[in-house]
Amino acid sequence: MKAFSNTQSELISHEEAGSRYLITGILVLDQPLHVGSGHGSDETDSTVVKDHTGHPVIPGSSLRGALRSRCERLAEALLPGRICFLYDPDETRNVDCVSIKPDLLRDPRTGDLLPEKELWEKLPRYLCPSCRLFGASAYWASKVRIPDLPMLDPEGSNPATQVRHGVGIHRDTQTAAPAIKYNQEVVMANARFRLEIIVENPDEDDLSLLALGLADLAHGRMAIGGSASRGLGGCHIEDGLVQWVDFSQPKELIAYLTTGAFPHHQALEPWLQEQLKRWVED
């Protein structure tokens, strides 16, 4: 069945235990990376985010935001007019999604939220595919959770970070603008980070949508962090693995709770191919 028919499937409550997917791998930097901490130091205007040990870390929220953005852009090419673009709303788009039209779930007379039962009945119709997967503000929680990515072998012989200097460029003369010099700390290329993506209760459409952005990330076609236009943030995934458990099967659930092991697994690349094929199936 082709991904995303014209009928929206029913939502699975976050309170229910349906299924859980775990996507793991190693995120390898092809280019230096800058995810700013919002602070400077004696050495640099902008330090990178670090964990409590002082080693660089990639915030899961940064990766999740970049992944959502990429999924939305690619899905718009396949589902024209059905994605709401949460962080780049266009008032001319006629997308009935509660993320950009919150009044859809409010009483037109009082402005109050609809009663819980009525809200729950209408919510599936008023979530675009992206918001069903990644969440819609206070109305619907994300199914995707990405913990912070710790650096692997941070005590290696090579320095983990360096300070890069730059200058502002005058747009007319294409030369260095006066008095606009800056520097920023970057994580060096070839650094490796442990990746985990947890997806709770996804349906087939959720997985097909996630596969769009994940394929770009896995194959090095997506940049994360700041200063991507300056050539920073390129990365790819190695040793990718997808594991899952069906909580509706008692034996699977008990075995998972007892051992922590997922009963099903598949290498990331063939799993992505299976999910992407759904977009072109008749």
Question: Main traits of this protein?
Answer:
10 strands, 6 helices, two-stranded antiparallel ribbon, alpha+beta, single chain
Would you give an account of this structure?
The protein is an alpha+beta fold. It has helices at 60-78, 116-122, 129-134, 204-218, 250-259, 268-277; strands at residues 19-29, 57-58, 144-145, 149-150, 161-169, 176-187, 192-200, 222-223, 234-246, 264-267. The strands form 3 sheets. Strands 1, 3, 7, 8, 9 and 10 form a 6-stranded antiparallel sheet that branches. Strands 2-4 form a two-stranded antiparallel sheet. The longest helix is centred in the N-terminal third of the chain and has 19 residues, at 60-78. It is globular and about 60 Å long. The relative contact order is 0.24. Mean pLDDT is 84; it is low at 173-177.
Give the arrangement of secondary structure elements.
Elements: E1 19-29, E2 57-58, H1 60-78, H2 116-122, H3 129-134, E3 144-145, E4 149-150, E5 161-169, E6 176-187, E7 192-200, H4 204-218, E8 222-223, E9 234-246, H5 250-259, E10 264-267, H6 268-277
Antiparallel strand pairs: 1-7, 1-9, 2-4, 3-7, 5-6, 8-9, 9-10
